[in-house]
Amino acid sequence: MKVLTKAYGSIEVDERQKVSFPFGLFGFESIKEYILIDAERQPFYWLQSLEAEHIAFIIINPFLFRPDYELDIDDDLVRDIGISTPDKALIFSIVTISPSGSMTANLQGPLIINRDTRIGKQGILTDPRWKTKHNILEELKQSGSERTVG
């Protein structure tokens, strides 16, 4: 299917890249349909709205820079999207890039996607370790990770 995107203009995507958020995302509750696209720079992805081409989020797997990341998710949340075991979940964090170029990830509000059905929901974690702005590059340095980002 052909999709208009914020980052790449009009592109062809596979139907399997579609992700539905029946409850929307916080602040974007009315937008339910997205596609997941590889970004030009790994390990990032784009979560592109199918309903409004100007709405797209850069996302990352938080375990890449925070191997100690833990999700204490409410059972109702995972039940809402049909996840019965952790291996059925894809976990992402929304990334913000400041004008100065620093990149932060929201570890307090993870995106949880059922890898089989491609239905997702945004959670809210109450663990005080997880904030809305974790500096990705600083945390990579602290963890001693060899992986490069950006």
CATH topology: BH3618-like
Helix content: under 10%
Sheet with the most strands? 9 strands, antiparallel
Order of helices and strands: EEEEEEHEEEEEH
How far from one another are the termini? 29 Å
Describe this structure in words.
The protein has helices spanning 75-80, 136-143; strands at 2-5, 9-12, 18-20, 33-38, 44-49, 56-60, 89-97, 103-105, 111-114, 120-122, 134-135. Helix content is 9%, strand content 33%. Strands 3, 4, 5, 6, 7, 8, 9, 10 and 11 form a 9-stranded antiparallel β-sheet that branches. The protein starts with a strand and ends in a 7-residue tail after the last helix. With 150 residues, it is mostly beta strands. The chain has a single domain, classed as BH3618-like (Roll).
List the helices and strands and how they pair.
Elements: E1 2-5, E2 9-12, E3 18-20, E4 33-38, E5 44-49, E6 56-60, H1 75-80, E7 89-97, E8 103-105, E9 111-114, E10 120-122, E11 134-135, H2 136-143
Antiparallel strand pairs: 1-2, 3-4, 4-5, 5-6, 6-7, 7-8, 7-9, 8-11, 9-10
Short description:
With 150 residues, this protein is mainly β. Helix content is 9%, strand content 33%. The strands form two sheets. Strands 3, 4, 5, 6, 7, 8, 9, 10 and 11 form a nine-stranded antiparallel β-sheet that branches.
